[in-house]
Design brief:
The protein is mainly beta. It is 10% helix and 15% strand. The protein contains four helices and eight strands. The strands form two sheets. The chain has a six-stranded mixed beta sheet. Strands 7-8 form a two-stranded antiparallel ribbon.
Length: 268
């Protein structure tokens, strides 16, 4: 880094002040250009308790009595387009910020770390260029044509997982239960010598009423949880059979001579 860039790196933690000398906030970080490595943005903590980070172009920032002075008002800095302080600004975020601060923006980079054409009162670059660039500041008399190249490779990925899940289902259970109940029956018996005394006990003619209490059973249900089985995931090794065909050699012995009875050659 040059001496100037070293000095800029020391701005971290200092106060950023506006064009009238009023405090804007504390400089939290210096953002460098990704291609040139030059300082390009001041990330300034603003808002209550420094809860917001605002970006200010570093092009015209100057040291002033230990602070860093920028040619913008405090409100202009606080109202700058929001950009995530994640260590890198996209081209879209930079374009919106430069437009907010009244600066030209181009994705072409200069040695200062700022886009070509950025700054106030700056002359057009290379007046001898044939023609002009209608899409932004004129750079040179040629365009660079680029192509995307496809790179194909392989990667390992997870193909699936197995898991156990338990859930509750409801089903109807029907059971037939025998129930008992009492009912009234009439029992008649003839008058005999054995019960004639009971029959004549009381008035001859009278009105009477007898009452019998009847009972019956009713079905009562009760449910209780009963463990039935335990289920777990496991792995097992499966052994298959494969048929292999291969040639093997073996030795054989022939005996020399002839059998005395058959006249045949003996082979063992």
């Amino acid at each position: 880094m040059s001496h100037t860039e070293s000095a800029v790196a020391e701005w971290r933690g200092r106060n950023a002040v506006d064009s009238d000398g009023g405090k804007i906030g504390s400089i939290d970080e210096i953002y460098m250009d990704a291609e040139t490595g030059k300082p390009e943005w001041l990330a300034v903590k603003t808002g209550m308790f420094g809860s917001k980070v605002s970006f200010v172009p570093i092009a015209e920032a100057r040291e002033s009595n230990g602070d860093v002075s920028v040619p913008y008002t405090k409100d202009q800095v606080k109202d700058a387009p929001n950009a995530e302080a994640d260590g890198e600004l996209s081209h879209e975020e930079e374009a919106a910020l430069y437009s907010h601060f009244g600066l030209d923006y181009s994705q072409a980079r200069s040695a200062s770390g700022l886009p070509e054409g950025t700054g106030r009162g700056r002359q057009e670059a290379d007046r001898d260029t044939v023609g002009r660039d209608t899409s932004g500041p004129t750079t040179d008399d040629a365009m660079t044509r680029s192509e995307e190249e496809l790179r194909v490779g392989t990667t390992s990925r997870e193909s699936g997982r197995a898991r156990l899940r338990k859930y509750v289902v409801t089903e109807e259970v029907e059971k037939t239960v025998p129930v008992k109940r009492e009912k009234v029956t009439l029992e008649r018996e003839p008058i005999t010598d054995a019960n004639v005394g009971d029959a004549k006990d009381g008035p001859s003619i009278s009105e009477e009423e007898h009452e019998v209490t009847l009972h019956e059973e009713e079905v009562v249900t009760e449910k209780r949880a009963v463990p039935k089985e335990r289920v777990r995931l496991g792995k097992e090794t499966v052994t298959d059979e494969e048929t292999v065909t291969e040639e093997v050699r073996k030795e054989q012995i022939d005996s020399e001579g002839t059998d005395s009875k058959t006249g045949q050659r003996e082979r063992k």
